[in-house]
Amino acid sequence: MGQSVTRRVVFPNRILPYLLLAPQLAIVFVFFYWPAGQALFQSVMRQDPFGTRTTFVWFENFKMVLGDPSYLGAVRTTVLSSAAIILLAMSAGLLLAVTADKPIRGAGVYKTLLLWPYAVAPAVAAALWLFIFHPSIGILGRALNQMGLRWDYHLNGAQALFLIILASSWKQVSYNFIFFLAGLQSIPRSVVEAAAVDGAGGRQRFWKVVFPLLSPTTFFLLVVNLIYAFIDTFGVIHSLTRGGPGKATETLVYKVYVDGVINLDLGGSSAQSVILLLVVITVTALQFRFVERRVHY
Amino acid sequence: MREAVLPRVETAAPARMRWRPTQWLAHLILIVGVATFAFPVYMAVIGSTHDAPTIARGEMPLTPGPYAIDNYRQAWTSGQGERVKASPVSRMMLNSLVMALVIASGKIAVSIISAFAVAFFHFPLRMFFFWMIFITLMLPVEVRIIPTYKVVSDLGLINTFAGLTIPLVASATGTLIFRQFFLTVPDELVDAAKVDGAGPLRFFWSILLPLSSTTVAALFIILFVYGWNQYLWPLLITTAREMDTIVIGITKMIGSAEAQTDWQIIMATSVLAMLPPVAVVILMQRWFVKGLTETEK
Lengths: 297, 297
What we know:
heterodimer; A: 297 residues; mainly alpha; 13 helices; globular; B: 297 residues
């Protein structure tokens, strides 16, 4: 985004550019801006129970949402699961990338065998891990029960959340692996060799030289993983627990869906959408400030 | 001086590849990573080769059973078991394939001509339109669920492929990437085309499009996976069973995840659902990695 370069040589046509932009602008207006405007509008309106009258209620919906203990519960679940997913998926990705970057036999084969889970849908990842951790038929679920651990994600909220974190991180590790590996390969060997010549050991070389040089990649991945953990875990939750048991695995995005689509609470769901929108805008803006900086490097 | 030494050090690396302790550790870490990725898929494959009673009793061995052909045939042609009632997997795969192909090619088509307009013409409101497309990055479906659903339903597009795909065809990322690439095309090339009497469309078709082929290929892989793995949107837009995509179909098959359900069908379906996107990523690995790491930033 950084440079607002404009070409010197352009075509003189007057109408053609508008025609070329028309398809995308039409989609963007009809399916993005109009609905987003509607969400904004509905977030300050309230419908009576029969859906016959809507009244303007200022920030009542927001007050209700923010005062609702189950919303605060969803905030907690989201923060907790996001932190766990980001930590797990990023540290595993970094460890694998650092290892695969070493000059070892079969590095190419390992790389291929480590990048495919990127292509697995979150909901399919959920199905796979469910089959393993099912309390009565799953191989590990049964083993846990035989050890006397009372494993049942249907009943135990913490266990359900664990399963969601596991399935979501498993799928995301390879994405982080790909980016960390690309980041590592773009670090000039001479810098690392220089540190070695100066007597820095392997660990010191990594933490004092490589890791700081990797920080643009790390920050980029932090943002992408945050958005993934916020938004794309919907598929995992919907196919694994539907937010249960109770509301133990209900994240912010899942709650918008439940309140809007299942409970048909238009005002409340819209207010939640607007709050979520603010979060997404903040995160994306952060990301682009960072991209801007990178471009100037 | 250090720089001069470098090439020797690097070519010397393969010779140093002996089985030293650090090498063992590297292989161990990578093998554990590969195994953790492969384990759930292996269990799914095994699960798809046994019959329902074996799995329900919790007695499934770690080796393949004799029912592979029966299970896959049953999933592919009927999608129905004792408990599971879904569309045939062949039908759901076709739905997913159509959705993924239309979304991927639609996004590329719509965004490449938008980028062409923004990069090669001067016209009023040019940057306004560009920003209008760009800002949609901050408006994921998840923050405007109900109003977007309402628009699609008002247009009569519920349970149609048009409703499933068109709203997802806008692409801020695609437009951004193509624009960045177009800005690097030298002015001389445009001038030469003009001198030879080529109009804008001829220039686009005969010069710009061939130049963009690598970018198009890389984007296509990423967008195909994106389209195939869609979850929330098909969940909202398709209610008819014959419109189910394969990813949604798996969730419906799982239901409340009873021990007694047709796990062999669910696992066969999961394996089939993973195949196309994973195959695309592995077979087109080089383009995929390049596309991912160079386009997403």
